[in-house]
Every structure is written in structure tokens, then in C-alpha cells.
């Protein structure tokens, strides 16, 4: 665990960025106040019976407030980028020198779909903050993802588009320690009811992904497992791995989903919080703020150890 309080490099970086944060925060507050003032003048004057004069008078501070936000946009972007590359990057290096973060990269939509973990094809997809590296012999990477699908709803005023979240959180991928050819999926039992349509149109039909009843009753109660090859599923999900997955699931915020495909393991962690984002209106000098990001980093890094992925089986190097 990287301790912010005892890491002099991190402390110096945070102190330097705190100066930038205060300037940006002060400027943004000024912009918001001017915009609010413009709205109040416009609305207030209209209520008092002078709408034209009020709107003209309100537009002056309103437009000035927008200009202030526009002018600070590049500085804000640079501040957020510095936080990720310098602060989060330093925290990663303190944990393992192989770890890097790429703020503008992520896991592409094709790979997201190929995990076969999700029930819909995304109509809108965003990904960022790709972290990658090695833990022992095992290469891994993870990124934040927000995938959505849309539906059209008929209303009396026409058609309205509604957006629905497929997945929001972190997708973790790692080289698995065994070779396999088929597909094995382990998903929370509480979401299985929504999966039929997905299986019916997937690369492998539902009939080819048989339910696998495993020896671990607790695992069977938490997950429903489907596989194209029952024998291979048991080869992958050994008793010790099932125990480790259950422990991992207990430590996660929400129930995880896993897929084993192309000799790689994917784990989807649903999360509400957006990690690795620099605060604007909260101080950077509060250690707890960065510690939340560091806890997430350590959690992902420790998956390799927790699931014993460094143990190479039958020629897997």
C-alpha cells in the first residue's frame, strides 16, 4: 500500500498542484457567480416589468462568466492531466515500476463486447485511464468504462431517446495461467434473467453454453456458470480458484462478473465512482482523497496475487 503521508515525492507534487487548483477553483467560482448574477438580473427584471432592459443587463455578466470558463478550459485540462500522469503515475510506480497510466486510452469497444459479459451492444461507449503493467510473470491492464444502449420511446410530442447503462466501472484483464480454447462465463445469479437475449445472438448460441454445476455450493449460489466445454470449465475453475474468486467478490463494492476467453481472464467491477479525477473545489492536501484512488490501484494489482495467476500450469509461460 502506497502511503501518501510518507511519500515525499507525492507530497511535493500535490503541494505544487494545489496552487493550480486554488487558482482554477477561484476563477471558476467567479464565472459561476457572474452567470448566476446574469440569470437573477434577467429573471428579476422581467418579473418587475422591464424584460428587455433586464435581459440586456443580465446578458453582460452572463456572457462574461461563460468567457471566464472558456479561458480557463486549457488550464483546467492541463491540471487534470498532470494529476493523472504525475500524481497517479507516481503512486503506480511506488507500487511497481512496471505500472503506467494512459489517461486518454482505454479498452476498446470491440474487446469489451468480446468479453461476452454484457447483455447489450453499446450505442454509446467511453473509456479512459488505461493502467497496465506486470505483477510477477503476469501482464494485466484495466480501464474505466461507461457503456450505454439507447431505446426510442413514443410520446405525445414525438420520439424520445432514452439511454440505459450496460456497464459503468472498471474492466480488468489479465493473462491467465492456463491455456484453454473455449469460453467460460461466471455471472451473478441476480442478473441472469436478463441474459437470454444476449446468449441467443452471441457468437456461441445459448445451447452451446451449458450451465456448469460446480463442486463449490457457495460459488454456485453466488454465480451461474456457463461454458462451451464442461471439462474445460472445471479445469479453469479449480476449487482453490473458486475460493479466491469468492474472497475477491466479498471485497468488491458490487458483485463481479468473470469471463475466461482466448486464454485471458476478464473481471468486470461495477462502480459508481469515477476514479483518478483531480478535485476542483476540494483540497488536494487531504490524504484521504488520494487514498481512495490508491486503494483501487492496490486492489487491482493484488488480483494477480489473490487469484494465483503467477502459478504457470502445463507449459504456460
Automatic annotation (TrEMBL):
The keyword Transmembrane helix applies. Keywords: Membrane, Transmembrane, Transmembrane helix. It comes from the Bacteria. The chain crosses the membrane at residues 31-48, 54-73. InterPro entries: DUF3137. This is DUF3137 domain-containing protein. It comes from Pedobacter jejuensis. The lineage of its organism: Bacteria, Pseudomonadati, Bacteroidota, Sphingobacteriia, Sphingobacteriales.
Amino acid at each position: 500500500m502506497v502511503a501518501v503521508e510518507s511519500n515525499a515525492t507525492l507530497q511535493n507534487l500535490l503541494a505544487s498542484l494545489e496552487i493550480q487548483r486554488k487558482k482554477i477553483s477561484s476563477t471558476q467560482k467567479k464565472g459561476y457567480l457572474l452567470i448566476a448574477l446574469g440569470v437573477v438580473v434577467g429573471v428579476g427584471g422581467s418579473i418587475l416589468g422591464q424584460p428587455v432592459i433586464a435581459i440586456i443587463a443580465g446578458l453582460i455578466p452572463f456572457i462574461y462568466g461563460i468567457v471566464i470558463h472558456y479561458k480557463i478550459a486549457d488550464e483546467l485540462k492541463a491540471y487534470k492531466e498532470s494529476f493523472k500522469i504525475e500524481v497517479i503515475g507516481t503512486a503506480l510506480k511506488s507500487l511497481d515500476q512496471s505500472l503506467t497510466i494512459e489517461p486518454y486510452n482505454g479498452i476498446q469497444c470491440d474487446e469489451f463486447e468480446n468479453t461476452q459479459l454484457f447483455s447489450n451492444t453499446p450505442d454509446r461507449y467511453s473509456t479512459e485511464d488505461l493502467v497496465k503493467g506486470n505483477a510477477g510473470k503476469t501482464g494485466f491492464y484495466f480501464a474505466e468504462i461507461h457503456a450505454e444502449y439507447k431505446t426510442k420511446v413514443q410520446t405525445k410530442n414525438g420520439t424520445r431517446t432514452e439511454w440505459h447503462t450496460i456497464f459503468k466501472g472498471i474492466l480488468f484483464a489479465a493473462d491467465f495461467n492456463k491455456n484453454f480454447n473455449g469460453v467460460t462465463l461466471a455471472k451473478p445469479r441476480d442478473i441472469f434473467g436478463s441474459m437470454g437475449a444476449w446468449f441467443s445472438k452471441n457468437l456461441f448460441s445459448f445451447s452451446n453454453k451449458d450451465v456448469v454445476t460446480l463442486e463449490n455450493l457457495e460459488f454456485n449460489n453466488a454465480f451461474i456458470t456457463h461454458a462451451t466445454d464442461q471439462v474445460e470449465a472445471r479445469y479453469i475453475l479449480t476449487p482453490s480458484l473458486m475460493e479466491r474468486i469468492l474472497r475477491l467478490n466479498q471485497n468488491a463494492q458490487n458483485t463481479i462478473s468473470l469471463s475466461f476467453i482466448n486464454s485471458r481472464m476478464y473481471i468486470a467491477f461495477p462502480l459508481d465512482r469515477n476514479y483518478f479525477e483531480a478535485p476542483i473545489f476540494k483540497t488536494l492536501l487531504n490524504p484521504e482523497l488520494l487514498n481512495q484512488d490508491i486503494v483501487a490501484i492496490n486492489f487491482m494489482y493484488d488480483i494477480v496475487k489473490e487469484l494465483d495467476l503467477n502459478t504457470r500450469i502445463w507449459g504456460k509461460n
